[in-house]
Amino acid sequence: MLATDMQTNIRKWGNSAGTIIPAPVLAEAGLRVGDAIQIEVVDGTIVIRQAAPVYRLEDLLEATPSDKLALDDEDKQWLHDAPVGRESD
């Protein structure tokens, strides 16, 4: 039996409803407890998929090795140039 062939029940959960997702189904879907998911209805079927990650500039810069942030000579040539379009908008 494939993990996606399992059956479970919908239960009341506060003012909402919920269900248990069996561990084999999570594993087969590549999901883990705590992952963000997106839920939508497609042709009367509930579809759950992993949510697209949301990146913040601060997090990306923090994760970037400092040697990759060093300016080379080409970067330094235009660094202090005046805007030529709508860069400041």
UniProtKB/TrEMBL annotation:
This is SpoVT / AbrB like domain protein. GO terms for molecular function: DNA binding; toxin sequestering activity. Gene3D superfamilies: 2.10.260.10. InterPro entries: Antitox_PemI-like, SpoVT-AbrB_dom, SpoVT-AbrB_sf. Residues 11-56 form the SpoVT-AbrB domain.
